[in-house]
Amino acid sequence: MKRTKKVSNINTMEMISPEGLNESQANLINLANKATDKAYAPYSNFRVGAALVLEDGQTFWANNQENICYPAGICAERVLLSYTHSNFPDLKPLSIAIVAKKSDNSGLATVTPCGLCRQTISEYEMKFDSPIEVLMLRADGHVLKAGGIDQLLPYKLEDLNE
């Protein structure tokens, strides 16, 4: 007889007002926002910036880079994580902030990391055995905060074989 089991996952995130951000969070959001201005997005007209703080306090930012040979472009989060890990492979990332703007300057867009970026964040959480806080600026100025990638990616590839 075959037995089945239900697997469920309930996730919640925090919504933080701009005034409720701590100094580090506000700094990351500001850096990610500035990074959007340097994004190369002539095809999607959608600029994304990301900023990250490492365990030693260093902060870095990056943005999305598109290419006419779709899907050769790369998301801001993966540019940033690849750069920091390539240059500082032993330093744990603590927090990453993501901001998106419409290229027509009509304002912010609320986004979460795409599936590839979520799995990439998960990879670094596994490597360092530590969650990475994910901050996502909403169009209304509030910030969604996930305490780790589990809140955005409940069934990661590595979880499927447990």
Global morphology = globular
Low-confidence stretches: none
Count of DSSP H/I helices: 3
Which class of secondary structure composition applies to the elements?
A: alpha+beta
The proportion of residues in beta strands is 15-25%
State mean pLDDT (0 to 100 scale): 92
What oligomeric state is this?
single chain
Cα separation of the termini: 22 Å
The overall strand count is 7
**Rg (CA only):** 16 Å
What's the order of the H and E elements?
A: EHEEHEEHEE
Helical amount: 10-25%
Please summarize the sheet with the most strands.
7 strands, mixed
Description of the structure:
The chain has helices at 23-36, 76-87, 115-128; strands at residues 14-16, 46-54, 59-63, 93-102, 108-109, 133-137, 143-146. The chain is an alpha+beta fold and 162 residues long. Strands 1, 2, 3, 4, 5, 6 and 7 form a seven-stranded mixed β-sheet that branches. A hairpin with a 5-residue loop joins strand 4 and strand 5. The longest helix has 14 residues, at 23-36. The radius of gyration is 16 Å and the shape is globular. The chain starts with 13 loop residues before the first strand and ends in a 16-residue tail after the last strand. The model has no long low-confidence stretch (mean pLDDT 92).
